[in-house]
Amino acid sequence: MARSLSSLWLKAFKRASRVQQTQSRKLIKSLLPKVAKVVKPRASSRVGVGPKRTRPVLRGQMVSAPSAKTVKPARLAADGAGSWKKSYFSWPSGAVTGGRRMLYALYLPAGAGDAPLPLVVMLHGCQQTADDFAASTRMNALADRKGFAVLYPQQSVGADRHRCWHWYKRLTQKGQGDVSLIAAMVAQVQSKHGLDPSRTYLAGLSAGAGLAALLALNHPDQFAALGLHSAPVFGTADSAMGGYGAMQHGSAAHEAAAQTRVTAKPSLALKTGLPVMLIHGSSDTVVRRVNLHQLTQQFRLINAGAITRVIPERKQYSARVGGSSPRHAWQSTTYYAGRKPQVVSCEITGLGHAWSGGDSNVPFSAREGPNASLMLWRFFTRHRQLSA
């Protein structure tokens, strides 16, 4: 393609850095040393592989936190007192998969009893690893306090040089590739560790959120609830360039048409709906907030049969400046299924492309709240997969 997607990410990064001020300065400091060491790669004919000239690329959606070298392994000990183990998941013998396997990290909280634990599956963004995402979200420490396991699938550089999930590809939207691989991984981990299949939840940031939406839509019986942070609208792209267009402008078609494109299969008849919490920063110039508004409409359509209150509940939360827990102002829009929140849309004022309330020492993670990890967990606990 004339201009690589990675170069477009770089332009989005430059725009975001002017808005995100303090956070962007930390990001630039962490990126600059890498630029000096990088050797110019050979040009590739594969769409979305990367630029012909090596530059710092955005991470998460196609942006996220730094590579594994940036986050020291010692950080994870501080993020949780439980068990942190890495393993490879491989397809069963005889499966037509091209011999793919995927690394994952599993966190089991300290002091877990005999009762089956809930599981939260976390999908990272581009150029991010399981270690990065665990450190930036502080999800392991929360798992210790609340008592749940956390699974972090990790995209390989062999599948994508920037560790991006290919949420924008048609095959992925149809439930193939990473979608089917991770779905099988989750089932195996649940069985091996005796986790509660009725309380399996799925969350992601940016590109990881884009894949999480497709994973939940293609396997609605496997996940009790979904959490998407800084996510792109789904069903509107079928190429890397189209993915970038969605990040910047949302759906080129009406969001209902894009939603139908992904959920038209009979297996995706979501009889009881798919509970979802959407979190997005108002100052996100990488995945712009039009995506939040269109995703809200898409999930309203998906959950039309479950929503019992046509008029949503809207709440405003004030900012908190200074102190140990600073917080942006934010607003929420909630559609209920009976007494349970079914679709929750949260827009955080002034937040850029970053995990809200995370570890600010990791790029694309903001110290200022609200605490996205805690918000998602509280939402998840309201839901259970009845068919599991």
Keywords for this structure?
388 residues, alpha/beta, Rossmann fold, 33% helix, disordered N terminus, two-stranded parallel sheet, 10-stranded mixed β-sheet
Give the full name of the CATH homologous superfamily: Alpha/Beta hydrolase fold, catalytic domain
Supply Rg. 19 Å
Number of domains: 1
Overall average pLDDT: 80
Distance separating the two termini: 45 Å
- Per CATH, the architecture is 3-Layer(aba) Sandwich
Might you state the CATH topology name? Rossmann fold
Number of strands: 12
Shape verdict: globular
- How do the strands line up in the largest sheet? 1-2-4-3-5-6-7-10-9-8
Please count the helical segments. 12
CATH C-level class is Alpha Beta
- Which structural class best describes the helix and strand composition? alpha/beta
Largest sheet: 10 strands, mixed
> Uncertain regions: pLDDT < 50 for 5+ in a row?
1-6, 13-75
Into which percentage range does the β-strand content fall? 15-25%
What is the N-to-C order of secondary-structure elements (H for helix, E for strand)? HHHEEEHHEHHEHEHHEHEEEEEH
Question: Residue share in helices?
Answer: 25-40%
Describe the fold and architecture.
The chain is of the alpha/beta class and 388 residues long. It has a single domain, classed as Alpha/Beta hydrolase fold, catalytic domain (Rossmann fold, 3-Layer(aba) Sandwich), CATH 3.40.50. Helix content is 33%, strand content 18%. The strands form two sheets. Strands 1-2-4-3-5-6-7-10-9-8 form a ten-stranded mixed beta sheet, with helices on both faces. The longest helix has 16 residues, at 5-20. The model is unreliable at 1-6 and 13-75 (pLDDT under 50).
